[in-house]
Structure formats: C-alpha cells, structure tokens
Amino acid sequence: MILEYTGVTADRHERVDVVVIGSGCGGATVAKELAAAGHSVLILERGGYYTSGRGDLDQRADDMLARIDGGRGLDTTTNGQIGLLYGNCVGGASVHYWADSWRIPADRCARYATLGVEGHEDSDLAPHYARIERDLNVHPAPPEYYNRMNLLFDQGAGRLGWHVEPVPQARKGCLKSGHCYQGCSFDAKQSQLVTHIPDALAAGAVLFADCRVDAITTDAGGRASGVRASFLDRRSGRPSGHTLVAESRCVVLAAGGYGSAVIWLRSRLPNGSGQVGKNLYCNPVPYLHAIFPDVVEQWSNIPTATGTSDFRLARYDGDRYLEGGYLLHPNQLQPELLAVTLPGFGIEHRRLMDVLPRMGGAVAWIDDEMPGEITLDRRGRPLYHYEIRGVDELKTRDAMKKQALVLLAAGATEVIIPDTPGTRIRDQHEIARLDDVDIANGAFLFGAPHPAGSLRMGADARTSVVRSTHEAHEVPGLFVADPSAFPLPPSVDPSLGIMAWSYVAANAVRAHLG
Amino acid sequence: MVVGLSRRGFLQAGLLTSGALLGAAVLAGCVRSIPDTEPPGDAYPDVLSRRELAILAALADRVITPAAGTPTARDARVARRIDRELAFNDGSLAGDVRAALTLIEYGPFLDFHLRPFTRLSPAEQDTFLHTCAESGWTLRRNAFGGLRFLCLFFYYTDDRTWRSIGYGGTMVDRKLPEAANAREVLDQPLGSARA
Hints:
The complex is a heterodimer of chains A (514) and B (195). With 514 residues, chain A is an alpha/beta fold. Chain A contains 11 helices and 23 strands. In chain A, the strands form 6 sheets. In chain A, strands 1, 2, 3, 8, 9, 10, 11 and 23 form an 8-stranded mixed sheet that branches. In chain A, strands 4, 12, 16, 17, 20, 21 and 22 form a 7-stranded mixed sheet that branches. Chain B has one domain. Chain B is mainly alpha-helical and 195 residues long. Chain B has helices at residues 8-13, 15-27, 50-63, 78-87, 92-106, 122-133, 138-156. Chains A and B meet through α2, β4, α8 and α9 of A and α1, α6 and α7 of B.
C-alpha cells in the first residue's frame, strides 16, 4: 500500500515494528527484507511516487529534475563548486542512476576493516551480491548497448594501451532511450522503484510518499522510538498541514548520503563523537567535452557500457602523489544538460550548440580523500561544505589529463574544458595546460552523485557514529542503512555496495527485533 | 548528471556588497525605473519583483543567441520560468538569485559605467558579462555563472529549440509534474495543478 499526498486528509498515528526513512538502495532493501521476515514496516519517503505506468517518467530534464531530484536538481555545495545529485522520490537516487553495478572492490573492503568495520569483507558480502545481481539482472553491457561515444572511448583507450571492461548493468529489456538520468520510462533499468519497493509492498510493507521526517524520537532511555513527520503537498513542496507520528521498536535511517546526517542533526540526537555530518565524501565528477568529426549523439543508448579501472587506485611514491585515484568512463548528457555545462554565452555558446550532435565527452569519478561537512543553518536547512583540495585536486587534474588524452586518441579534433574561459585542448602537447586551469569556486563545474561518510561506521564510539551492526553507538534502536555509513567512498559506483551493506543491516535489525 | 547553479555561500556573503552597490548607484542618481519589457503574461512574477524579472530577462537576452527559426529567450519566457522555479525552492535559491541580479544590474558602476546593466547597449552588456565571467572576484564570477546556468537550462528545455541542435526529442508523451515550471503553466496561479 502506498499513500500519496492526495490521500492524506488527516493527521495520522501509526505503530509498527520498524520505520524506514528513505526508499532508495538502502531503505528499500532493508524494508523488503524485514517485511518478508514478517515484521510490520512503514517506509517514509520525502519525495513523490512516480511510475512509468502513469506516464510520470516523461524523459524531459525540466519535468524530471522537478520530480525525482533532491533540490529539484539545483542544490550545490556552499561554495558553488559542486552540484549535489541525489534522489527525492520513491526509489531514491536509483531512479536517476546509470545502472552501473559494481561490487565494492576487495581492497576497499579490506581498507574498511582497518578502520574498524567488521562483517563487511568481500567474502561476507559475496552471497548478498549474488542475490542482488540475480534479482536486478546485473550483467556486462553487451555490444548492442555501446553507443558511438562508448565505441570511441574504447578506441581511444586501446590506442593508449589502457585496459577497458564492460560496465555491469542492472537492466532488463532496455530500449536504449538514453534517458536513464531522467528515470526509465520503460521500467527496464532495475531501480529500487521496480525491484525492491514492489517486493517490500508485496511482503506487506506500507509506504508513505510525500512525507518529510522532521525528527527521530527517542524514549526516556535514549532509544529510538519512532519519528515525527510532516506530509507535503506535492504541488508546492511545502507541508500540507497534516502530520504523522509513528511509534516503532526501531528506526532505520536511510535517507541517503546527503540526507541522513541532516535528519540526525535536526533531531538533535546525541553526537558525542562529534562525527555526525563530518567526513562527507561525494565522488566529484569533472566532465570534459570534445568535438568529433562525425556524429556522436552521446544522448543515445545507455550512458556507460564501458570504461577503464586502470586508474582506480591512486599511486604514490612515499607521500608523493603520482597518478590515478578515479574511474574513467564515456560521458552521457542529454542536450539540455549539455547546454549548461558548455562554456561561454551568446554567439560563442551558440556555435557549440550548433555542433552538439558531434559532441562527445568523458567523465572521471574522483575517489576523494579530503572530506567536507554537513551542517545546518539557523533555519535548519542543510549546508554542504566541501572543497576539492589537496590530493583530491591533484587527482582531479590528473583525471582531466587522462580524459583529454582518451578523447584526443579517439579522434576528437578539440577538447573543451568547461571552465570559465572555455579552454580548448587540440593536441597532446597542450594537455599540460590543465595544470593551470582554475577549478576553484565557480570557475569549473563538477557534479557529485555519490555521497558517503557523514555517519561513518567504526568500532570506536569516539571516532565513529555507527557500529558494525549498523546500530548507532549512542542511540540504541537506530540503524543506518545507506552510504552515510561508509567510512570512505567505495571507489566505484556505490549502488550495489549500498544494497549489499543493507542486507547486513537488515540481518542486524532482525536480530534486534528478535 | 547535473551541475549546480546556486552560489549560496558566496552570494549570501555578497549581499552587503550588492546593497552597497545599489546605494552608491542611487546616490549617483543613476537608478531610474526599468522598463517592463516582459510580455503581459509575465507582469506578475511569483517570487521576483518586476524589476528583478526585467533584469533577468535582459540578461537572458545576452546569454541566449537563438538559432534561426527558434524562439528568443523572451519567447521562451526564460526569466518567468526561472521565477516560477524559485517558488518551489526553500527560499535560499531565491535569495541567491536576487543577490546575483543586483550584482549584475549595478556591477557596471564598478567598471566606471554610469548606467546599470539594463541601460547599457547590447555590445556594452556583452563586454560587461565577459568581465563578470572572467573576473578574479569570485562573487561576481559566480553571480553570472549561476544565472547563466539557469538561463541556458530553461531555454534548452523548451522543445522548440531541439530541432536546431540536432536533438530528436523524447520517446514518450509529456506529462507535467504537479510543481511544474513549464512555459505552459506560467499563466496559471501557483499551486493550481490538478492533483
């Protein structure tokens, strides 16, 4: 059963075993597991419920940012350097993700273990991955899903001697529309909206959409006891005037890497470690564009059929950074979004728009090490403090050089840097100019779709927020099941890893409930 | 993926600067009423003042150079669509946009013009905007960058522009969201979408 804003006509009071805050990869996975185990589960989702069957997923960037993106696609870090990309709808960010489905690399799991994370080693997660990969039809992208930009990327990488591999995709019957970021109109992308959410509902879970959690409540003993929430009017995004009080035996916080710490802080829950909201990583993404001699139409077919992991791990000489620390993939942006990332204005911008079908690009996913922080302003609104700096700036510049290299090797006649002056790179000798490109506040556009770390897991309550059971050190009965709990970014697209961790969390919650 | 437009921290920090600029301009007697050049349907914005909307429309005229046979920024009602979008934000974005518009409108005084942006010639406006884009003053650069982002996004989401850029469009019919910022709903009162 799903309750939407049109069905809310009065205040509500619910009593359940578990309240799950958020319906993305973390919340949906936990909810369906607990419901299947016979527990009463109430899922609360701040955003709306949108489906292909009702024609909601109309592929238009303006309509779909308004429907499914947090901040309607317009939130940034406080310095304006980075666009924050997160979900705000039933299914969470999985509704707009690219369906890339990587297991967290074993080396990163081992790193987590050194930071006090237990029970999340690669071998622990393997059975969960197997189940997810089966249920979501995860498979390497077959050749027919390689669009022109993917083929060009492989050609360029091949000429440079880089190893490329098909990117595992969670798709079933993909029609190659290319509008993955706007939400799949054909239910082919195996987002939570069409997988774990229906599973949870079929098992008896109840979902309230358009429902903003205002606070997690605690009892006299400090245990999580439920939530207070406000129903929103989807036509305005503002509270409708109706409220929810939910009492529960435990609460699962899964509002995403940009959202969960905000709810914690607003709820004024204990923060003895001082770590709540700190350690914010976001996997920043620089995009470089390039003009090719022939038509590319990067907006067709799936975004990332291929890529290279050759540079995933940074290499150091002692403390000195040498190279790497990112994934490299072909890029896909729809024309409306390409327009805003291309430099210039007026006739200069017009000339770039005139060659849009010949425009390709590459992205890098920076495995960031220099965290930011989430705080609240005086009105309780979130502020995301983050700056690409230190070794992350070195990684970013190295990544941009590799992006330019692969685009030129693929036959691009010109690489376009989306900095304020619109720097152009026309051959390999000019790539060193990327050392001097201004990437500071507002001079260069980055996206950040993969937040992590702001409620990090660890064994020590003085330095971490949740223990390896996903239960908060300081709030018994409160579990975190989203990337906020990752102590570091996973170095790959996190979706599959979030789901696998959430299976671990679900087992812990079941043990808690008895 | 999408890139951001709000330059929140810097713009909020720049409000005082904007106010100082405005005050200096008023003292210099350089601020006169800005003609309302928006179409009649845009006379009553949701969030911005009519003056602010006119500044935004003037800026959009310079940011957008339409291809032959495609709508102008005013035909696409870019400024008014941005204004409608602000109505769905929690308030911080509107503050940023207002501050940015003030910086754009009165920024020319910093460059020894005696007229605000909306009273410069198109060529002077372009020169000024280039100055903003390349400014070492982060606040000024971000003000223009954020507004540029909004103008481009709301222009190129107008499907009448798609053919000119070689985009064949979507595979499914349009369905407006409840909180739509589309050109088609701008003359309807805010929040009147059918449930």
